[in-house]
Design brief:
globular; seven-stranded mixed beta sheet; 20 helices; Aspartate Aminotransferase, domain 2; four-stranded antiparallel beta sheet; 3 domains; binds pyridoxal-5'-phosphate; Aspartate Aminotransferase, domain 1
Length: 474
């Protein structure tokens, strides 16, 4: 027995800071953070000793203490510096998942973003005149080429685009919209609320299932500011229905000298039918029939960064640009750089599937998903062992973000079921789902009908997925 107080064995803060491991940590995160972590950790040890904690005392007196203690401190400091924004595996079966950040961007866009981020750029500077320029100009020509629209402007997201259009063109006036289009998009974007925020008076026409041209015509009065159509992208009314076409609405609006605006939501620039997807109205088609302004998202079917685009008539776009709200809603240079790159990809549609991650995911061949599924199935069965049954099953993924709401894309999923008695099954599945979300790169699936489904359509880094499964604690 040594009569030396264990407190005497405590290393000094300075000694800890001089170790190789904490020196290199200091070089990465700075002296102050490491020093205060040392002080806190030493205090924990002192508290343990004061309480007569045998485990702490044995650890302190063991040969490996300094190394282990430094590793413990490193872990603490690293977790303090870790971002809470982390990459995840999106195996939800929803390709454009709003809560998981929608589109993944192409490498070329990421390069463009890095250049814009690390340099001074002429985001709003006219190089020819040497004076203040126009932020939208960088996109206008490409959008004209691709959509046929006269002019364009870009804001933070499509909700902002709709708000800007309504406020610029119809504040204090009535906006005619079909009752069947008073939609809620999710995340608290509801047409009536946006209308109110924009200072417009909502004038609904027609009925939920049927609206006719005469409904609009009868509602037009001197207070009418514009006619609006909203693409009801996230639900469908079937059966005895009638909606009025854009051609007719544009003609009616122009007869009365008011603008006709179409909020497309997903806004695709490409006919998706040749890719085996159902037809969604394209921005080009909608403009071609006389729509004055079209609004759509940058990160839905376009496959770009979060943004809201407005394309259409020059005189109306000028009104949006003159609105102080535009200044509040404008995009930054990094978003702009990504958007320029993505829109340019549309000039070569044949290569979009290989260049745009969204299209690669949407058009991913079933045989490829199936083969991937067979490989990960074996690993998952080994990992879960007797805790659960895993099978490779047919499923359907959806595009998501309100685009083409039906489950359309034939896919394959790992289906995990647990043998627990009925009352406990749900708790067990929830526990497994939590364990998967707790992995270094969280895996997000979906629970449906007493099973956990991991849709493999969007699983790209197979090796990383498999590697981390050994860390699964279930
Ligand atoms: C998604 C959507 C919006 C909102 O777009 P964000 O880019 O998410 O702001 C607005 N209108 C329609 C019809 C939509 O589908």
């Amino acid at each position: 027995m040594t009569d030396l107080s264990p407190f005497k064995s405590l290393p000094s803060v300075d000694r800890l800071l001089q170790t190789d491991s904490l020196s290199s940590l200091r070089a990465r995160v700075g002296h102050a953070a490491v020093k205060s972590a040392c002080q806190r950790s030493l205090q924990e040890i002192r508290d343990g000793l004061a309480q007569g904690d045998d485990f702490v005392q044995t650890w302190l007196l063991s040969a490996g203490f300094i190394d282990e203690f430094c590793a413990h401190i490193t872990k603490h400091v690293e977790s303090e510096f870790a971002s809470s924004l982390v990459p995840v595996f999106n195996l939800t079966g929803t390709v454009l998942h709003t809560n998981l950040g929608r589109s993944r961007l192409p490498d070329s866009a990421v390069t463009a973003m890095a250049i814009a981020a690390t340099n001074a750029v002429n985001v709003e500077y006219d190089l020819e005149l040497g004076e203040r320029g126009d932020r939208d100009i960088h996109l206008t020509r490409s959008l004209q080429d691709v959509t046929g629209g006269e002019a364009a402007t870009v804001v933070n997201n499509n909700a902002a685009a709709v708000l800007l259009v309504l406020n610029s063109l119809a504040a204090g006036k009535e906006v005619l919209i079909s009752r069947g289009e008073l939609v809620e998009i999710g995340g608290s974007f509801r047409i009536p609320d946006v209308m109110a925020s924009a200072g417009c008076v909502l004038r609904e026409v027609g009925t939920t299932n049927r609206t006719h041209l005469t409904d609009y015509a009868n509602a037009i009065c001197p207070a009418t500011g514009l006619i609006m159509k909203v693409h009801t992208s996230n639900y469908e009314i079937r059966g005895f229905t009638n909606t009025v076409s854009e051609v007719e609405l544009a003609a009616l609006a122009h007869e009365h000298n008011i603008p006709f605006v179409f909020d497309l939501g997903s806004g695709t620039l490409l006919d998706l039918q040749p890719f085996g997807l159902p037809h969604e109205p394209t921005v080009q088609e909608v403009l071609a029939v006389g729509t004055d302004l079209v609004t759509f998202s940058g990160d839905k079917l376009l496959g770009g960064p979060q943004a809201g685009l407005v394309v259409g008539k020059h005189s109306l776009v000028q009104k949006l640009k003159a609105n102080p709200l535009k200044r509040a809603l404008r995009v930054d240079k990094i978003t702009l750089a990504a958007l320029i790159d993505v829109i340019n990809l549309y000039k070569d549609p044949a290569r979009l599937t290989e260049r745009l991650p969204l299209f690669a995911d949407l058009m991913r061949p079933l045989a490829e998903i199936e083969a991937l599924g067979e490989r990960v199935l074996t690993v998952m069965q080994l990992v879960l062992g007797k805790h659960a049954t895993v099978a490779l099953v047919a499923t359907r993924s959806q595009i998501g973000s309100g685009a083409l709401p039906l489950d359309l894309l034939e896919s394959r999923a790992l289906e995990i079921t647990v043998a627990a008695p009925k009352g406990q099954r749900d708790a067990d599945l929830q526990r497994l789902a939590f364990a998967l979300r707790s992995l270094p790169k969280p895996v997000i699936g979906r629970i449906n009908n007493n099973r956990l489904l991991l849709d493999l359509r969007c699983l790209r880094d197979e090796a990383a997925f498999i590697d981390q499964l050994s860390a699964l604690r279930f």
